[in-house]
Design goal:
It is built from four helices and five strands, in the order βαβββαβαα. It has 141 residues and is of the alpha/beta class.
Length: 141
């Protein structure tokens, strides 16, 4: 069983300036953070559950360390096994931007039609007339 260190404890050690090197080590399924504190067995960052915190991308490791104020780290990918890694999570911010852009396009189209109807440059067609014209072309599922 490997020694672990909590995020809060790591923050305390960083503030007290008692951290030596920080290694980012590749394993099956991702990356772990190993902290050199002078102990013979350097602890590995733990998740809140107490299990070893496994990062699925180098970007997420770097982001976590930068948030802690760590700007120097060493990567060791000798034992990294990419086959065991899960797919990256969906970028929720990108999805929200795409949805907002889509909504803006639809709103702009609807407003343009409304403006043309109000200006009299376009006429509305009733649903009965649409069915009469195109109803025979509807798919029968």
């Amino acid at each position: 069983m490997e020694d672990t260190i909590t995020l809060a404890r790591l923050q305390e050690f960083l503030e007290a300036d008692i951290i030596g090197d920080i290694d980012v080590v590749g394993r099956v399924g991702g990356w772990v953070i190993r902290v050199h504190t002078g102990d013979p067995s350097p602890p590995i960052l733990a998740a809140p559950s107490g299990a070893i915190r496994l990062f699925t991308s180098a970007d997420s490791v770097i982001q976590q360390l930068l948030e802690l104020g760590v700007t120097r780290m060493q990567f060791d990918a000798d034992d990294l096994d990419l086959k065991g890694m899960r797919a990256p999570r969906v970028d929720r911010a990108a999805l929200a931007r795409q949805q907002a852009e889509h909504d803006a396009r639809i709103t702009a189209k609807a407003c343009a039609v409304r403006d043309r109807l109000r200006a009299g440059t376009e006429q509305a067609i009733s649903s009965e007339e649409i069915l009469a014209r195109y109803g025979k072309h509807r798919r029968k599922d």
